[in-house]
Specification:
Keywords: Cell membrane, Membrane, Transmembrane, Transmembrane helix. The protein is mostly helical. The protein contains 19 helices and no strands.
Length: 483
């Protein structure tokens, strides 16, 4: 293992292997949460073809990953989407993407504190008979995220690895229980027939399927901390996308078998929040249902930690490029974590949670759905822009490195992700459950943020050309590392 010398402002080098990267990005997707909390909606809206939808979403994102990871060796920055888009589409688009990434990932991370608080509050009341105000739970979670992030990425990866194994294990336990008992009325493969996969409502359900993969692309954020990044990052990206596609599809299929293919849509509609808990309670035992409730909380916490790490790497990259204040790019002298970026993100989370608490807003319907939705849309838009950037990069900016595979993957993923973006925006009401006016306002956050980022880039080009030239390059900053 290699580490950077003290005083160079660098993150810790060579501490993440392929497995650690997979834990980081799959944990961000929160498999247990998206299965127990969202998959029943996909079944209710898309029918029993939902398992095929998760496979299709995974296939699209795997094609995207082919183009995405082919650029890895040509991008030195830890800025992920920011750096890739800057390389392909130019620095103005790169900075616009950077601002959108910061807004999107913060929206995802902070909004989900509402889900964590709501889930933990209900679980503590039901299991232990303890009533704790949701803001208290949310703020405790914020503190726990900061502590683990402060201790360094290697500690965070170990924590995420344990939590991911636990949440995946409880879902597998449910599936095994269903398979062992033969389901409600025998096992079948109707979910994978063309009639089910292309049935009415599947277009809308695909928005949930794509949303379940949010975070898988963040492998490249850990380029500087990965061992042999040209090999480990592509491997981790492919494995994460493939694992989630197969795992999600299998788990959703198993819960459909738990109630029977003929009754799955009605069962999901009648018990959206409890479908998975009822299934594991029936086929494994009541104790397993209680354990699943507890692990949902740890699943959301793991997601929070993973997204926090992603946000701080974006902040770190922008600070080193001179776009954000240089002090945000300083790292801890011992743990080599971007501690100042962590503190800034933590303060922002506390302010937003405090504002919603003072307003008396519901943590689920307001903090989660209201804040989280622009983040989901923003990340899918960033994926689409990155796919476009790979095509432009290999065809116009670096023809010598171009391959037919990379270009074809970029073109195909651009088309497919554009369709996915349209489906997500067109069906955003399914995510928010609010009025059309509010939906328009939430979605408009994405283009407004891109516009603002582009305007800042143009200002930098005319007023601070040296800073503009550094966008997406991760130029070395020569500050100390005191915190």
């Amino acid at each position: 293992m290699t580490t950077s010398p003290a005083g160079d402002g660098q993150l810790r080098r060579g501490v993440l292997g392929t497995g650690s990267l997979v834990f980081m990005v799959v944990a961000a997707a929160a498999p247990l949460t998206v299965m127990a909390g969202v998959a029943p909606l996909a079944i209710m809206i898309g029918g029993i073809g939902a398992p095929a939808g998760y496979l299709a979403a995974g296939a699209v994102l795997t094609v995207f990953a082919v183009a995405f990871t082919r650029m890895t060796r040509h991008v030195g920055s830890v800025g992920a989407f920011y750096a890739y888009i800057a390389k392909g589409l130019g620095k103005a688009w790169g900075l616009a993407a950077a601002l959108l990434a910061l807004v999107s990932y913060n929206a995802l991370q902070i909004g989900v504190y509402g889900l964590l608080a709501a889930q933990a509050q209900a679980t503590l009341a039901d299991v232990f008979g303890v009533n704790v105000p949701w803001p208290v739970i949310a703020l405790v979670a914020v503190a726990l995220v900061l502590v683990v992030a402060w201790l360094g990425i290697d500690v965070g990866a170990k924590v995420l690895g344990v939590l991911l194994v636990l949440e995946s294990g409880i879902l597998l336990l449910m599936a095994i229980g269903v398979l062992t008992h033969g389901g409600a009325s025998g096992l079948d493969a109707k979910s994978y027939t063309p009639a089910a996969a292309f049935g009415p409502g599947m277009g809308a359900a695909m928005s949930f399927c794509f949303g379940a993969f949010i975070g898988f692309e963040s492998t490249v954020l850990y380029r500087r901390e990965a061992r042999d990044p040209e090999r480990t990052i592509p491997r981790a990206t492919y494995f994460a996308a493939g694992f989630m596609a197969i795992f999600y599809s299998f788990i959703v299929w198993s819960v459909i078998q738990a109630v029977g293919s003929e009754h799955a849509v009605a069962a999901a509609g009648d018990d959206i929040a409890g479908l998975f808990f009822t299934a594991i309670g029936t086929y494994v035992g009541p104790w397993a249902s209680t354990l699943m409730h507890l692990l949902v909380i740890s699943s959301v916490y793991a997601s929070q930690l993973a997204f926090h790490n992603a946000i701080t790497r974006y902040t770190y990259a922008l600070a080193r490029d001179g776009v954000l204040p240089a002090w945000m790019g300083k790292v801890h002298p011992r743990f080599r974590s971007p501690v100042r970026a962590s503190v800034v993100q933590t303060v922002l989370a506390v302010v937003v949670i405090g504002a919603f608490a003072i307003a008396g807003a519901d943590p689920y319907t307001r903090l989660l759905l209201g804040v989280n939705t622009p983040g989901v849309v923003g990340v899918v838009v960033l994926q689409t822009l990155t796919a476009i950037a790979t095509v432009v990069y290999f065809l116009r900016r670096n023809k010598a490195a171009s391959t037919s595979t990379a270009v074809a993957a970029g073109i195909v993923s651009t088309v497919l992700l554009t369709v996915a973006t349209y489906l997500l925006v067109d069906n955003v009401g399914l995510l928010t459950n609010t009025t059309a006016t509010v939906n328009v306002l939430l979605v408009s956050v994405v283009p407004v943020t891109l516009l603002a980022g582009g305007l800042v880039a143009l200002w930098l080009r005319s007023r601070r050309p040296a800073t503009y030239a550094r966008i997406g390059e991760d130029a070395v900053v020569s500050e100390g590392v005191s915190v």
